[in-house]
Amino acid sequence: MTLFQAASSAYEQRLRRAEYLAGEHAFAAEVLKFFSEITKFQKSLYARIAAANPATAAHGGRPSPPIREAFDAALVLPHFRAFLSTVERYAPAPLAESARQMAAQPSDTWIAQLAEYWSGSASVQTAFGDGEAEAVAQFFPRAFLQPYAEFLAEQIPTPTLLETAKLCPLCGGQPFLGVLRREGDGGKRFLVCNFCAQEWEFRRLLCPNCGEDHERKLPIYVAEQFPHVRVEACETCKSYLPAIDLTKDGNAIPLVDDLAALPLTLWAHEHDFVRRHANLLGT
Ligand SMILES: [Zn+2]
Ligand SMILES: [Zn+2]
User: Fold this and answer.
1) What separation in Å is there between the alpha carbon of 22 and the centre of ligand 1?
2) Model confidence over 146-158: pLDDT tens digits?
3) How far is the CA of 153 from the centre of ligand 1 (A)?
4) Which ligand has an atom closest to residue 276 CA?
5) Which one of the ligands is nearest to 206 CA?
6) What residue segments make up the domains of the chain, in order of their start?
7) In this structure, which ligand is nearest to the CA of 193?
8) Which of 39, 103, 220, 259 has the fewest CB neighbours in a 10 Å radius?
């Protein structure tokens, strides 16, 4: 299987999982339907980038530049209007209205916003404790550029690293989700990057936000409704990270199951835990 086929099937898996979860959890159906439309767009954009990008394996042997320095606006800009149309058509009303307004702006404004997000300098990225505001502010560049970032990240061989890296070793992005995978007799914990969607291994008992490592300060909560989704909280900095436990449900697709676990978000808010970095739709 080529890299491109593997990625294409990764998007297919997200779509299938979203459809399944929407059938299981009516309260998440609307969010998942919108996510599916975004995913279809991302899948086709990924295919175009893979076909056009000189960094593909077919041209192998040349070292790729660091992801954050690789932004080529001309490669993706021709597709931005179609993306805005997708959002306008399928998003909840406020977001659809934002898409309409953005569509009326000159392409220089689009380029500036996309480039700012890509560089990681957008001020909202560093604001503490307002993951939802971050999700709204960054929705357009994040959803649109994710296939591009995923594509570039997939070209980089996975580096060996410490289990304590708080930022994505491939692009410097922030972790927004955890994943537990079975390995040997136990499970290993990984963090998922909010920029390039890749995973890196991370120590199980360690808060990725403040570095707390005392077990009694790191409670874990699981809702009956979602036995494979955990809230991994930290009493010290009051942040939490949802984690998808693949040892409990091997069919889960972390990016998708996280979107559906709305009751856990409500629970965490009621208990004053803050998600530092939101998922794509701010759920
Ligand atoms: Zn990354
Ligand atoms: Zn902490």
Assistant:
1) 28
2) 999 999 999 888 7
3) 7
4) 2
5) 2
6) 3-154, 175-275
7) 1
8) 220
- Closest by CA to 255, choosing from 37, 55, 34, 18, is 18
List, as ranges, residues with CB under 5 A of the ion ligand 1: 168, 170-171, 173, 193, 195-196
Over the range 106-124, which residues count as b (16 or more CB within 10 Å of their CB) and which as e?
A: eeeebbebbeebbebebee
- Ligand closest to CA 174: 1
Amino acid at 180: L
DSSP calls for 31-49: HHHHHHHHHHHHHHHHHHH
Q: What is the pLDDT of residues 127-149, one digit of tens each?
A: 445 666 677 779 999 999 999 99
Ligand nearest to the CA of residue 213, numbered in listed order? 2
Q: How far is the CA of 26 from the centre of ligand 1 (A)?
A: 32
Mean pLDDT of all residues in 11-33 = 97
Kindly give the distance from the C-alpha atom of residue 244 to the centroid of ligand 2, in angstroms, as a whole number.
Answer: 19
State the distance from the centre of ligand 2 to the C-alpha of 181, rounded, in angstroms.
22
Say how far apart CA 48 and CA 59 lie, in whole Å: 16
**Section 246-262 average pLDDT:** 96
